[in-house]
Amino acid sequence: MSIETARAALATLGFSISRRIFLLRDMSSRCQIQANALGATDILPADVPAVVLLERIGLLLAPPDQSDSAAALGRRFVAASAALSDLMGAAEAGAGLPVRAIEDSVTALNRAADGGDLNAWLDMVWRHDDATYQHCLLVSGLAAAFAQRLGFREADRRLIAEAAVLHDIGKARIPLDILRKPTGLSAAEREVMRRHPGIGHDMLVAQGGFAPAVLAAVLSHHEYLDGSGYPQGLSGSDIPDPVRIITICDVYAALIERRSYKPPLPPGEAYAALVAMGGKLDRDLVRVFGEVVLDAAIMRLGQYGRPVLKRAAGQVA
Ligand SMILES: [Fe+2]
Ligand SMILES: [Fe+2]
Questions:
Q1: Nearest ligand to the C-alpha of residue 218?
Q2: pTM of the model
Q3: Is the residue at 178 inside a domain?
Q4: In a domain, 33, yes or no
Q5: CATH number for the domain including 170?
Q6: Which DSSP state fits 309?
Q7: Which ligand lies nearest to the CA atom of residue 195 in the structure?
Q8: Is residue 50 part of a domain?
Q9: pLDDT tens, residue by residue, 45-68
């Protein structure tokens, strides 16, 4: 049964179900993503002990506490994750991207950014075990927080979040053996990988209805101000602000992500690496971005007492 069929079947039920526990025989990331897409509030293995299941049901039946910002953020994360699953599934299948899923995702991201807890968002991202989804949710969370910090009006915040959600949509058409290769890519494989911005851009143009800023971010998020990026080798004023914003979030995300061929950098070191890229990135924007990610890191420092920022402190000022 496809996700769409299952969702349609759920919608025909004569009562509304706001909370759903999914028991999965297969706990692979794919099945969990599908459960999230169907609105799972909680996911457990099918052979979970009855006492654990009853405890989870009890938690769900407790009256929702609107003041519980952690629970609200969790729901927003699930919504964004489910919307992303819809998008990637449609892109893989060569179908039109579901506009409603994009809107849902953008709304969830901006509400999460309003909540101001970037650390909690990152913690949820790290629990997602599919690297491509993890990356998209990470870039999206960072971009939404960045746009809020920049003081953008609502319409521009939505554009930035939409650009972030879609920035790597072209990867849905890159062969999985290249996308998930555990070691470094060969020159030929890198060439294929580097097609993803153009593929994503062409998908959006073919569908129509996307804002120029979103199209530009999808096509040009690997361009650098000094002309050393790809696919077009754009430089300086040819790269508009929304693209520069997504690029900064994308580079930072790659630095703090765990990849099979490199360990994740702590926030302070990742930010220092961003600063060290000098004229490749917009220095003014990098400065403001530091307020977003280092504030979050300082909050964490207070939480756990770990000196994560020591090394970067001199380079950030
Ligand atoms: Fe990309
Ligand atoms: Fe990316």
A1: 1
A2: 0.75
A3: yes
A4: no
A5: 1.10.3210.10
A6: T
A7: 1
A8: no
A9: 888 766 566 666 766 665 455 446
